[in-house]
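Title: Prediction job returns without error message
Component: structure pipeline
Severity: low
Priority: P3
Assignee: unassigned

Description:
Job completed but the reporter wants confirmation the result is attached to the right record. Sequence as submitted:
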Amino acid sequence: MARNEKQKNILLLDIINGKNKNMDYMKFTYGFVAQLFEEKDGKFICTEQSFSAGDQVSREDINGDPIEISNTEEIYFPFNMEQPEE
């Protein structure tokens, strides 16, 4: 079932706060966000953004304790960023 953005944000907050007991662990990928800003009517507006994942990754169980899992044991999930609307 597809979730809307609000439902995804609530689920993520539940996971971070340890309220979702169905999840085995949370993965944190460190990287950076690049944003393109264009000037419109004297203000700068973000018109495009992308996330570049780094090599540093950490994982925690629902209690916030670090765990070790190999990348080869995970199914890849892309980092899709929602683009700004003009």
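Comment from assignee: result matches the submitted record. The chain has one domain: 24-86.
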